[in-house]
Amino acid sequence: MIGERIQMFRKRRGLSLTELSQRAGVAKSYLSSIERGLQQNPSIQFLEKIGEVLHVPVEEFVNSEQQDRPAGELDREWEDIVREAMKSGVSKEQFKEFLEFNKWKSNRE
């Protein structure tokens, strides 16, 4: 259900209903009715506004299969970390070297 997924992402970000509605520029009462399942077909524009604040693509709200993601797949926080590393210019090789160094360091302790 879209409303449940919005609520889950909102809580993960530590935002209240009021904070999310204000930051996204949507009516708090409408957001509340979506989260509670009273309204079930929000517009793409609404989802885009909410997604922008929560840093979640619209697909995450509507794709229920993502909710049942296997434990081995990346969660949202890891995806954000990897994207930030990529944006800052860290290459795959540098990232691998960092991981190898940490493994080596951990084994020595």
TrEMBL record:
This is Transcriptional regulator. SUPFAM superfamilies: lambda repressor-like DNA-binding domains (SSF47413), SinR repressor dimerisation domain-like (SSF47406). Residues 6-61 form the HTH cro/C1-type domain. InterPro entries: Cro/C1-type_HTH, Lambda_DNA-bd_dom_sf, SinR/SinI_dimer_dom, SinR/SinI_dimer_dom_sf, TransReg_Diox_bact_type. PROSITE patterns: HTH_CROC1 (PS50943), SIN (PS51500). One of its GO terms (cellular component) is cytosol. The keyword Transmembrane does not apply. Keywords: DNA-binding. CDD domains: HTH_XRE. It comes from the Bacteria. It comes from Paenibacillus oryzae.
